[in-house]
Design goal:
Shape of chain B: globular
Number of strands of chain A: 14
Helix content of chain A: 40-55%
Largest sheet of chain B: 6 strands, mixed
Helix content of chain B: 25-40%
Number of strands of chain B: 10
Distance between the termini of chain B: 44 Å
Order of helices and strands of chain A: HHEEHEEEEEEHEEEHEEHHEHHHHH
Largest sheet of chain A: 12 strands, mixed
Shape of chain A: elongated
Strand content of chain B: 25-35%
Strand order of the largest sheet of chain B: 6-7-8-3-9-10
Number of helices of chain A: 12
Oligomer: heterodimer
């Protein structure tokens, strides 16, 4: 019997049990849809995060000093070792375009005139070019050694009366000191500007490290301070006196070219680890300076995302397994129910392989229909999900082909035993079967 | 060995089932069915009728002796070859019709040819012709549940004939039919018999058996006697005393 005829007969029997076939298929639909939806969301999430690395950002390398084996993403295990002098020296290096520090300042509240808003973090001290020109929607970058700030829209809009250029905000620092900043610029959106911040949207105020960070550091009497996840473990820090030391620094290469980036990274590392630098005093034997690009840092983030996604897809795959057991079960029932038909077919000359082919075809059709519907449903669910959490939609199209293949394989595996049982049916018994 | 005039021949056939004690369902049966003949097999329940049917129908193999169908020794064939032989040389007509419920009349008739790999259009054409010959030319697209019992049995007969088999095996072909319909079907059997088809009918109703050229009486797995009928049909007027209250499905 040729495959087309098997297909025709199998389709006939599937249509003969519409409800049952639909319910059987549903198991596969849900399994495949879940896998496709989560894979789509995962791909969209990654695209969303990676898409935030602007070309201009790609020439930055982000550096900190930590023990070589520290794991856990940007700034893991970082210690405040870099001084302003170090940064100036690095900036003078041949391969380096610019170098500046990065620190988050601990704040309590921010006031705009009468109105005060509690804000514990989100004040970021850095160099002027940290805020790239193309990200500024209004105004300009702040200048070093000036009481200026650039806000992102989330920070600007958190007051009843929106902050506009040239307004002055009063910031209450963690220690209780009050300091004024003049708003000179507002960025285009509220997502983070570098992997140090993270890329989620939240209110942020960008200020120059000098005076804000240097002041806070010296007031608190510590060599460094703040910094995402940066612990200051007291004691030995006092040797640095009142001089501000940075936990994190950013070095701009001449271009986003990999060679330029590597050159900048190498010369900055060489300098900072040499005896000429202030940092070397504190590096000792334990700490190592490391520089990474956004892409490299995101790679680590991606690993975490992938792990999470694999976990969820694994759960979805279990539902696919349950669905395939459903197909196997229904096919077994179907074989028993159609024992007499099998007997008839064998009596009129059907070979075992014809019967095998017929039942296998049936379960493969169920599997493929389930896969196609599931893929459609999964893509729609992925689309809605991506819309809902505002991500750029990325369809992992290779997974669509994979889903169909999986549907086919599930159909074959689930149908194999029932079809084998059908093929082995003794026609004499089958014809007597009521 | 059978000559080319022989459709089916059994020699010293024994079939033993082992369910606890060995039971000889058939015990040394020898029989020749020549081409174009019309044979009836009668006997009480347990006399071996079904076993004989299964052997002649290539559904089963003998424990001892040989069964030759269409010139081939059934016992010596592989399962696959036996199935092939059954598909081409044997046509079945069952008491319960045994049509495929989800196939219409013409598809049911064409089913045996499907397994012989014959082209779809050719199959349909042949099936349509046969349905016309059994008087169902206007019902070829009907599903089995849209047909009466008699019509279903006509479809089954057409299906049995579709591969031009060496022999048509009918197992109580009128057991589920009322008297009028039964006569119609048996008339149709006569018609095809006259056209050269070899018929083997298993029945326990005398008046059905009397349509044949000869009646083979089985008892306890052995041929009790062979009754040659003269073919004039004079025995057909016999009383319906032996007739069981057969149910009508119409």
């Amino acid at each position: 019997m040729n495959p087309l005829e098997s297909l025709r007969l199998a389709w006939r029997s599937i249509r003969g049990h519409r409800l049952r076939s639909a319910l059987t298929t549903l198991g596969i639909v849900i399994g495949i849809a879940a896998v496709i939806a989560f894979v789509t969301l995962g791909a969209s999430l990654q695209a969303g995060v990676i898409g935030d690395i602007s070309p201009d950002d790609q020439r930055n390398v982000y550096g900190w000093a930590a023990e070589p084996d520290s794991e856990g993403g940007p700034l893991a295990g970082a210690q405040p070792v870099f001084t302003q002098d170090d940064l100036e020296a690095v900036e003078d290096l041949e391969d380096v375009e610019a170098a500046y520090g990065y620190a988050t300042l601990q704040t309590q509240a921010i006031s705009n005139g009468e109105e005060t808003v509690a804000q514990g973090s989100g004040m970021i001290a850095s160099g002027p070019s940290y805020i790239r020109e193309e990200r500024i929607a209004e105004g300009r970058q702040f200048e070093m050694e000036a009481d200026e700030a650039v806000l992102n829209p989330a920070a600007a809009n958190q007051f009843e009366e929106n902050v506009s250029l040239n307004d002055t905000l009063t910031v209450a620092m963690l220690g209780g000191q009050q300091t004024d900043v003049k708003v000179v610029g507002i960025t285009d959106n509220s997502e983070g500007l570098s992997p140090f911040e993270g890329f989620e949207s939240s209110p942020r105020i960008y200020v120059p490290t000098d005076p804000y960070y240097t002041e806070q550091a010296s007031m608190l009497g510590i060599g460094g301070g703040g910094g995402a996840g940066g612990g200051t473990d007291g004691g030995n820090q006092s040797v640095t006196g009142g001089e501000a030391r940075f936990l994190a620094i950013i070095v701009e290469a001449e271009s986003a070219d990999q060679a330029d980036i590597d050159a900048a990274r190498e010369s900055a590392t060489d300098y900072l680890e040499s005896d000429a630098s202030d940092a070397s005093e504190l590096l000792g034997n334990d700490l190592e300076v490391q520089f990474q690009t956004s892409t490299e840092l995101l790679g680590q983030l991606e690993d975490v995302l992938n792990l999470l996604q694999n976990f969820i897809v694994g759960i979805a795959a279990i539902s696919l397994l349950v669905g395939s057991i459903g197909i196997a079960n229904i096919m077994l029932v179907s074989v028993t129910e159609r024992t007499r038909e099998i007997g008839i077919m064998k009596a009129v000359g059907a070979q075992n392989r014809d019967i095998l082919g017929l039942f296998l075809t049936e379960s493969v059709i169920l599997g493929i229909i389930g896969a196609i519907l599931g893929t459609g449903l999964g893509l729609v669910a992925g689309y809605l999900g991506a819309q809902y959490i505002d991500l750029p939609l990325v369809y992992p199209l290779e997974y669509v082909a994979l889903a169909i293949a999986v549907g086919m394989v599930v159909g074959i595996l689930a149908g194999l035993y029932p079809a084998w049982r059908a093929a082995r049916t003794d026609p004499i018994d089958a014809l007597r079967y009521e | 060995m059978a000559s080319s005039d022989t459709a089916v021949s059994l020699s010293n056939v024994r079939k033993t089932y082992r369910i606890g004690e060995p039971v000889h369902a058939l015990d040394g049966v020898s029989l020749e069915v020549s081409r174009g003949s019309y044979t009836a097999i009668m006997g009480p329940s347990g006399s071996g009728k079904s076993t004989l049917m299964n052997l002649v129908g290539c559904l089963d193999t003998p424990t001892e002796g040989t069964v030759v169908v269409g010139g081939r020794d059934v016992g010596a064939l592989s399962d696959r070859e036996r199935t092939q032989l059954r598909g081409t040389e044997v046509g079945f007509v069952f008491q319960t019709f045994n049509l495929m419920p989800r196939l219409n009349a013409v598809e049911n008739v064409a089913l045996p040819q499907l397994f012989q790999g014959i082209d779809r259009d050719e199959r349909r054409e042949r099936a349509r012709n046969l349905l016309e010959r059994v008087g169902l030319g206007d019902r070829i697209d009907h599903m089995p549940n849209e047909l009466s019992g008699g019509q279903r049995q006509r479809v089954a007969l057409a299906r049995a004939l579709v591969n031009d088999p060496a022999i048509v095996l009918a197992d109580e072909p009128s057991g589920n039919l009322d008297t009028d319909t039964e006569a119609d079907i048996l008339d149709l059997f006569d018609e095809f018999h006259e056209g050269g088809t070899t018929m083997l009918v298993v029945t326990h109703e005398r008046h059905v058996a009397e349509r044949a050229d000869r009646i083979i009486h089985l008892l306890d797995g052995k041929i009790e006697r062979i009754e040659e009928l003269d073919g004039t049909g004079e025995s057909r007027t016999g009383s319906p005393a032996g007739q069981e209250p057969g149910g009508s499905s119409e």
